[in-house]
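User: I'm new to structure prediction. If I give you an amino acid sequence, what do you actually give back? Let's try with this one:
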Amino acid sequence: MSDDVQALVDALAAELDRPTGVDDRHFRSVAYSSHPEGVDSVRIASILQREAPRRVTEWLESLGVQEATEALRVPANAEFEMAARVCVPLRFDAVPLGYLWLIDEPEPLTDEQLGEAGRYAEEFAVALYRARLLERDDRRRERELVGQLLGLREGDATLAAEELLRAGHLVKAPTYAVLVAAAPGEEGEAAPDAVRVRLVDAAEQLRRAVAPHHLLVLVHGGEVVVVLACTSPGESTRRAAALAAAAGGAEEGGRTLVGVSDEFATTGALRAGYRQARAAGRVAAAIGREGPVASWGDLGAYRVVVTMLGDRDPTDRIPDSFQRLLAADEGPVLIETLERYLDLAGDARAAADLLYIHRSSLYGRLHRIEEIAAVDLRSGEDRLELHLAVRLWRLAGLGG
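Assistant: Good question. You get back a string of structure tokens that encode the predicted 3D arrangement of the chain. For your 400 residues, that looks like this:
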């Protein structure tokens, strides 16, 4: 937040000789004065955690703090180890921007002191509103540049990267990565508004948890895209897990999946990184891979398949040999057998053990596969075709 707000906090605290703080309208700490020893637990928690504890904010809301239009005395609360306070709502043109907090003990603030706080409140509101506009403009430009960097908006990616670094939106770092968070649903179906809001809020929580200018956020359709400046090995995977956890569970339309790209030494590779992260999430959703985080580097042969596919429908690429298996009455059993057999590189004993059948039963199923699909499983070409077909089938979401 702007230096003006901090300067006003320091000036008012000195004038009133009271600990003073300013929160935004979500009770997140914006600025605070130096405090004497013995400051209460709630202010300490707000400073250390950068926001008030949830049970405290719920209590404050019950007192009508959010609806207040003038100074409101908040009594001490022994349960929270919270001293008495005066809350002065900060509004500009009736727009709620935050709260000015003044400790109201050991002696209550006088009417004269409250009047002085009210005059300062007008300056606080102007400073907060100005900072909000500047931040909004800054974020708007940041989003435009990130879109150009990743190929999601018209513009030169190289110039966008240069401006992001030059203007301080993004720091120079050893490596960079892209995270794509989405809640998978039906193909082509837009994510519910509540899902998008939850994802955006989770990304903003992650932004606050990392050092300034190490993370950029862009909302693109039903996805939330994060560009991350990485300063330690494996940071992209850790941040992806935190993003998924902050986004929560499946209450509003499906589990959240976060795709993670490789880490790159330059921002110039992040356009490819976006494609990697997006593909990783989509593959994980299609094949039912467990866990909320899917890394491009862990996809194995699927990386080759999705790269060749691009944006094309995998269903249209499934070969006739496999289509014949799909159409057969015993197709589900034969396809499961084929997939296990091929994934185990043709090891009949291991495949039979995995399927809990005798090896002779396995050979019988393999023979039926050859008959129906019109293939020879001793042929490397035929085995490769069928193995790719299984991958395409999975990507198409037809594998259940």
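You can read the tokens as a compact description of the fold. Here is one thing that stands out. The chain is about 50% helix and 15% strand.
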